[in-house]
Amino acid sequence: MKCVICKQGQTHDGLTTVTLERGPTTVVIKDVPAEICENCGEYYLSEEVTDKVQNLAELAFQHGVEIEVLRYAA
Questions:
Q1: Average pLDDT over residues 19-29
Q2: Which backbone phi and psi does 23 adopt, to 5 degrees?
Q3: Residue 30 sits in a domain of what CATH number?
Q4: Tens digits of per-residue pLDDT, 28-71?
Q5: What pLDDT does 74 receive?
Q6: Residue 2 covered by a domain
Q7: 15 lies in some domain
Q8: Nearest 10 degrees: CA dihedral of 37, 13, 28, 55?
Q9: Are 29 and 53 in contact (CB under 8 A)?
């Protein structure tokens, strides 16, 4: 698909790192499957992947951790 951010690059399957913050908590999730723009690097997650990333982050937020680094597992 064409990138909606830069409007020039095409996206391709790849892996990315997602960083989420809420209050004092930062969650970093590595190796997340995504469509990544070849031009600007913007990434797009499927609905299924987004749900899993949000669930992983929510657990860290609920446990009150300051920083959590996780690896995405399909």
A1: 95
A2: 55, -130
A3: 3.10.20
A4: 999 999 999 999 999 999 999 999 999 999 999 999 899 999 99
A5: 74
A6: no
A7: yes
A8: 120
A9: yes
Tell me what the mean pLDDT of segment 6-30 comes to: 96
CB atoms within 10 A of CB 2: 11
Residue 41 lies in a domain: yes
For residue 6, tell me if it sits in a domain.
Answer: no
Domain extent for 54: 11-71
Residue 10 is given by DSSP the state B
How far is 46 from 60, CA to CA, in rounded Å?
21
Structure tokens at 63: 């446990």
Q: Collapse the DSSP code of 19 into the 3-class scheme (helix H, G, I; strand E, B; otherwise coil) and give the result.
A: strand
User: Whole-model pTM?
Assistant: 0.90
